[in-house]
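Appendix C reproduces, verbatim, an entry submitted by the partner laboratory led by Prof. M.T., so that reviewers can inspect both the input and the predicted structure.
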Amino acid sequence: MNMIVAYDIADPKRLARIAKIMLDYGTRVQKSIFEVSITANAFKEMKERVESVIVWGEDGVKYFPLCEKCAGTVEIIGKGEFTDPDAEYYIY
C-alpha cells in the first residue's frame, strides 16, 4: 500500500527518533512528511515502533493511505522531486 505519513513531534529527541524510524520505511519528501510504499505487516510494525516513541498528549502522527490511481497523479509545483517507488536505485 502507498501512503503519506505526516507528524508533529514536540520534543527534539523524540522527533529525531521518529525520523530515523520513518527512514526505515519510506522517503522523506519534506521535513516531517514521508512517502511510504509498504506491506500490511510492515505497516503494523512501523506503527508499533512509532507508538512506542510518541507521547500521546504531545505528539501527533497521521497516516494518509493513497490508492494506486491517486499515487500516480501526484503533482509537484516548485521545489521537489517525484519519487517513483518502482524505479531502480543504485547504492554506491
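The two ends are 28 Å apart (CA to CA). Additional entries are available on request from the coordinating office.
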